Amino acid sequence: MKEARVLIDCSDEKGLVYKISKVFYEMGLNIDKNQEFVDEQTNKFFMRTKVSGIFEVDTLQNAIKAVVPLEAHVRVIVPAKKRIVLLATKESHALGDILIRWEAGELNAQIEAVIANHKDLKALTRRFDIPFIHVSTEGIDRHEHEKRMIEVLGELSFDYIVLAKYMRILSDNFVKRFEWKIINIHHSFLPAFIGANPYKQAYERGVKIIGATAHFVTSDLDEGPIISQDVIAVNHNYSWQDMQSAGRDVEKIVLSRALHLVLNDRVFIHQNRTIVF
Amino acid sequence: MKEARVLIDCSDEKGLVYKISKVFYEMGLNIDKNQEFVDEQTNKFFMRTKVSGIFEVDTLQNAIKAVVPLEAHVRVIVPAKKRIVLLATKESHALGDILIRWEAGELNAQIEAVIANHKDLKALTRRFDIPFIHVSTEGIDRHEHEKRMIEVLGELSFDYIVLAKYMRILSDNFVKRFEWKIINIHHSFLPAFIGANPYKQAYERGVKIIGATAHFVTSDLDEGPIISQDVIAVNHNYSWQDMQSAGRDVEKIVLSRALHLVLNDRVFIHQNRTIVF
Amino acid sequence: MKEARVLIDCSDEKGLVYKISKVFYEMGLNIDKNQEFVDEQTNKFFMRTKVSGIFEVDTLQNAIKAVVPLEAHVRVIVPAKKRIVLLATKESHALGDILIRWEAGELNAQIEAVIANHKDLKALTRRFDIPFIHVSTEGIDRHEHEKRMIEVLGELSFDYIVLAKYMRILSDNFVKRFEWKIINIHHSFLPAFIGANPYKQAYERGVKIIGATAHFVTSDLDEGPIISQDVIAVNHNYSWQDMQSAGRDVEKIVLSRALHLVLNDRVFIHQNRTIVF
Amino acid sequence: MKEARVLIDCSDEKGLVYKISKVFYEMGLNIDKNQEFVDEQTNKFFMRTKVSGIFEVDTLQNAIKAVVPLEAHVRVIVPAKKRIVLLATKESHALGDILIRWEAGELNAQIEAVIANHKDLKALTRRFDIPFIHVSTEGIDRHEHEKRMIEVLGELSFDYIVLAKYMRILSDNFVKRFEWKIINIHHSFLPAFIGANPYKQAYERGVKIIGATAHFVTSDLDEGPIISQDVIAVNHNYSWQDMQSAGRDVEKIVLSRALHLVLNDRVFIHQNRTIVF
Q1: Which of B196, B203, D22, D95 is the most exposed place for a label (fewest CB within 10 A)?
Q2: Could you report the predicted ipTM of this complex, rounded to two decimals?
Q3: CATH of the domain at D262
């Protein structure tokens, strides 16, 4: 007996659920959980099914491919810990939240390394016996720094890069090299307050609620598909530093929640949106 | 071309999704939306599918019944306005919210009548040209009052009774007569503060958040299956009257949200819980 | 015995609380509630005090003016219903919510009239015996329409204009004529999605939370001081129409909450922010 | 120049604000922040003022005592790190959240020790170079275990005991010994689901929202004054274990938020409620 998550996305057409569930039925598999979504505007079909039984991954994958449209994207994933690399700068709350979950065995991922452009988080990372790699920006330009980052990443093996408050803007080149593999936490309720110091922007705009947004990173700064968002109420008593401090709690929870979804293969990307099962 | 909502609940067994989707496929129906849930503890299967195409309701229902377990509960519902009766007492916020939605054509129900044990809401109800029936409690006991309520209801035709802040406790007899047809809004975050004056109880307990709960009514007071809940933050500045006032906004929104779900056939009842698709 | 709300704002200086509370003490007044705030960035002092006792409004106001800086803004307000004019277009949820509160005596305002650029809301308004004034835009340009609106408003007496989903952009001239007297509900979580059809924008951006914002109207579209905001979670199942429908509940509650604050003299405006006591 | 937090609570009487602010004024102190609250039901006055200037703590305290009622509780507190002891059992999320804040210098407290009835959290605690004391329950009864806990605590010096998911019930004797010094995080939205395994209770009740409550511990289990609460939405897809997992995020944030308030002297206890400035 084993388990798999079957993820399918393709153009919608009549009979898809029937044809796919027929494959499961004829292979003697149990459907433990099944979710579908059809985007009516784009006529796209999304399905995520948890099956269990006795099967070969390749056989199942091929059997499904035989009944769905040619262009379909079919993934049969046997649950296993993903590997992630964390990028950070100076703030410890997002990194710390991930480390504590990791230690408790609740993260569902192996942390390969923490890479940072400052040394501030070295001590914290080492407390958890995780490799800390400092890639300094001193005396080098953006291009050179990114080149070194790519070298360091090239020596690691990972499924996702998690920007746990990594305060550097990534180039197009970097983003495209790791397409759909980079997850960021932005310290605002996107699309409000794109860019630098969103808490100061929020303070000056006099908002009554602040938030945070976890999203996949694309070439357009702060514009990638949103995975998770949450908010917290503030008022006139909050300086922008108070907002920043209150916001940190939202940031870390939203990032960890997004990671949980991605690491459990619950997120489809469709255009600039996510379907989250 | 017509649309139907197919709701099925039965014991779970292998192949259910396959067998049911096969029926849809062979009848040439489109699946516009499909949701399933299996309660692992009780091995119960729930499915709600929106289909469209050319079909007879009876034919479809029988075709499904032929492939699911004998004890299965199968409903094929062609979308249509349900009929509701509103019960109220003196407060107008929940009733008013429903009336405004009704007038805008957003309620998806026909309001047959408003029945109240006081006359306070007569003027408001009449503003909307809806029958207002006053069933006074003066000079009669609980039993006699309920008997008269049942008489009045007996002359009406309805799918659901909505308790829009009806401040009388219903007897077992009454509840059983209209099993799973009565929806109530309770002015607390159940199961906290069951019984009388929950806002005063909340104030005395010093809570920092208050809430409201929409639920199906069963013989056990404030114990029926919950459909919807929401909350709002309060603080030491709130007297219990302030809590009551703030709570009214939550009450009316939670009740209307629950009605929306029930009137669109999106709620299954299972034991003391609801499955909401 | 009478009550008053004393609102003071001025440059901060040492001894303000002492000097002002001395005035209350020497006049034999009770302080029933007292709130202060100092904006440290701008060195501005804000104070709102509920006092009760035997006093003349002018005497109290003059006594306070004698102890605070010359430029201080001092208001002694005896609680009374404000008068408001509602501007609307076609949607009834925000207007309806205000009407229901008004009927229950919970609005703390007298509604002088509803003015609309369409006739859709005439029937609803008339149900509540409130004057409905239709100022059509047919065959006339923006300038001419606004001129007629100003004429109509000129014949009314009011403290605030409430834009209850009034879907026309107001000119600088109009806004300045009624400075700090116009309250709007914007159907997004400002500053996200300024401008037209924010729900469509939100859908396309793939956000997981939508919101609404009540604010004072200034010449800069959707940029005035925010009074109140709230949000609601959405997901990939929501079309933009579903978002709009869910958003309406947030809009009406946020607007009514903002009105409650303004009508009870609990809001100071400072630069582009509000201090809400 | 130094800062102090002045906390006063006493019976309300006319002129209190005047008399107290006169003391500040005559000592030449700045009022940086000032908050008051009068509980009308009990006629109790609460005031928290942040002052700065040149002063002696004793002189200021005595000057205030001279103008307020004899029974008044007057505290002049110069901001300094409090000392806390953490009690835990097996779960690491609440403890971990506090440790990460402590490491970042954001906790405003010194952690004297972690005491646990199991050894599971020893490794995590040691990662942060904080003393871990294991007080086993093996082979001894409740009374004996608590005696040993009290011995261990007797050798430490602390302002507060923080129950970071300490899963043992404390005796009256224990609680009274450390009156108003014990802060607990309860894994439910109190007063719902008092007692054991609240998530299982919540699951069985079919609630749509779960929560957590930080409160001072009194002799009545789960009945002490509430400091902070928060909630998160759940649905029928959540098993009770899923609720527990989602609830952990709420628990740790609510506990840390409560700690932040208490450690900054922002909480008054009044009857079974808290006034939080």
Answers
A1: B196
A2: 0.95
A3: 3.40.50.170
